[in-house]
Amino acid sequence: MPEGEIGIRVSKSGASKNSSVVGDLPPLDLENFKGEFSFDDFFKDLAADALPLFQDDNPKSSDNGQGTFPNGDLQENGVKGGGKLVGVPFVEAEALLPVCRDTRKELVELCYQVDARLETLKEDVEDYDVKHETKFIELEKGVERLFESFSRLDSRISGVGQTAARIGDHLQNADAQRQVASQTIDLIKYLMEFNASPGDLMELSSLFSDDARVAEAAAVAQKLRLIAEEGIGSLGAGMGQIKSSSNASPGLEVAVSNLQDYCNELENRLLSRFDVASQKRELSTMAECAKILSQFNRGMSAMHRYVASRPMFMDLEIMNMDARTVRGVDTVQGAPPNLMKGLSTLYKEIIETVRKEAATVAAVFPSPDAVMAILVQRVLEQRVVAVLDKLLPKPSLTNPPPMEEGGYQQYLRTLAGAYEKTQELAKELHGLGCGDLDVEGLAESLFSSHREDYPEIEQASLSQLFQHKIAELKSGVAQPADAAFLPATARANSRNGSMFAYATISVTVVGEFVHWNEEAVARCNLLTSQAAPLATNVRAVFLCLLDQVSLYTTEGLERAKDALNEAAQQRNLYSIGSTVSRRVAAAAATAAEAAAAAGERSVRGFMVAVQRATSNVALVQQHFVNTVARLLLPVDGAHAACCEEMATAMANAEGAALKGLQMCIDTIMAEVERLLAAEQKATDFKPSEDGNPPDHRPTNACTKVTAYLEHMLEAVYGALEGLNKQAFMTELGNRLYKALLVHWQRFTFSASGGLRLKRDVSEYAEFVRSFKAPAVDEKFELLGTLVNVFIVAPESLPTLVDGSLKQARAEAVRFIELREDYKSAKIASRFSSLAH
């Protein structure tokens, strides 16, 4: 056989051997395929008889890595060349082929068997499903029938229950009717006993005399009274039109009378037992009596008896102790803070006492809130009122209490403190449980008599405080804290007892006014609950402050004006003529300097007064915004009216201030004129021709005037601000301008003197720029141009006047006439047209 071909050798002996092998194979069974099945094991079992060599599971390999076939031929491990397997052919294949065919046939038969069994099983499952579905339908129908049976059973049970309930109700109603009938029979019997004879209570049933059955007797007696009274009422209504005959039988009047007597006797007996138990603190007995007594007039007699028997309402020592607690043991006339401390202590004791009583009331009475309402009302109306009457004796408006004893202010402070503390007490008592009692309203009603006259007393108090303060200032007893800033003359006079006549306005004093008013407004807010009366009271109180501040400020400004008038009179007193002796002139100059010093002090004093008046007005306005305005806003028109009244009240002070400021300007300008007249020399503007260089410094008069004005304006800047300052500085600048023009009209000017004058004008113009008044700056700028008429040559005057001085032609002509060369240079003839 050529190399590379696979050949199969079949021998006869092999064929016969294979047929015998096939015949010996065991038949296949389905059981062989159950469980875990391995094809390798199955094939090995088939080939084991046909190929005995396959029974060796691990054939050995040759050393050169080549395998051997079962017939002993070699087998190549690798594949070479074209990929064909190279080796000896599998000659036993013919022996295995019949085995595989037979096995395949058996396997096919087994598949047929499996299919047949599966088909049978499928038919069995379908039959089972049909039977199961049929059975399930039958079960559903049975369950439905069972539910229907249960529903019928439930309906029967419900019907039986309702029937039983109706029977029970009928039985209960029947029993109740039986009991009512029995009770009615008993009540009729008892009523007949009470209606037997007037005033006879000895033949009554044992029920009404047995102490162990007092509660039952009380209930029966109340029912009998109700029946008898209703019977009399219905009988009277039915027989109102029928006249009774003389032999008519008596009705139920006897029963009513006897029942009333019995109820009174029983109630008194129970109250006596209640009192005894109360003294022994037997709460159970008290509770039993209170429960029975609640059937008599809702137990009000027991409630009032219990409240009235409390030691705080009966013990005189406790009442006296209340007054000592409030005023203090060692204090005859306590101050309001001490009084409020004592009142707080007393109210705490009252709260603790009422709290203990509340525990007893809750344990004894069936209606504790009603008892607590009576108790709290009694506490407020008796114990608290007694304390308030001693604490708050109402003052008279016609005969005010003296300030040494606190005046109206002490009464008002005590009233406000007591009102506030009493309201706190009312809240605490309400928290202990008082039912529907309006405790806070009741506490507020305790002060109704005090609140009626409160607005008038508040205003009287403010007036009294103001008058007392003014009296102290007049006497010099109470100097304000800012008195150290007064002028020396005022301080000296204050030591002589006339401080009020000379003292300037005090911010501290007005601060006291505002403090009094704040306190009064706070009291108004506390004691007045409604918005409209509150706004009225607050407005009246604030108007008191406006009147006080207006009066005090106006009088202060008037006093400062008086000082200015005195300084003016002093200046006029020492005015002298020009033809006097040197000695008289020297004395007059000394007196004039003294008058100037007095004028300076008066101006500074008035500026201080204006400054403090402004501060005082600011205090009032701040008080109005922070405290008063919000209380006026709820009432239409109240806020606007109060603002208008505030402006009106300050108008007088403003008028006095304006007049005083004008007088200050007069005083300042008087001193300026005195300095100009005393210090200005004729040689300043007409120096001698001695060959010395011209003096370019300001004149001595100019230096002293500007220095004086700068010194005085320090006080002005500190006192005035805003539009007031601007108006004052403008007026002062205009007056200075006019004074300088008048002053220079007295002198004759040379060319060099004109230069000296121009230097003064420049100095004045530079100084008035600090006034920050544009109108004044324009005038002094024009003045700087005007003095050029002394400097330019005569022939240039017409051009100057017709040019830059066209708006000041009249002043220019008057100044030209003051030139030294006015006549020699024949300026009048050259410039005659300007003069006309």
TrEMBL record:
Protein name, entry field: Exocyst complex component Sec10
UniProt cross-references to Pfam families, sorted A to Z: Sec10_HB (PF07393), Sec10_N (PF20667)
Question: What InterPro entries would the database entry show?
Answer: Sec10-like, Sec10_HB, Sec10_N
Q: Where is this region: Disordered?
A: 1-24, 54-80
Q: Which organism is it from?
A: Sphagnum troendelagicum
Superkingdom of the organism of origin: Eukaryota
Report if keyword Transport is assigned.
Answer: yes
| Entry similarity comment | Belongs to the SEC10 family.
What PANTHER family does the record tag this protein with? EXOCYST COMPLEX COMPONENT 5, SEC10
Using the record's annotation, list all stretches that form the Exocyst complex component Sec10-like alpha-helical bundle domain: 216-475, 503-830
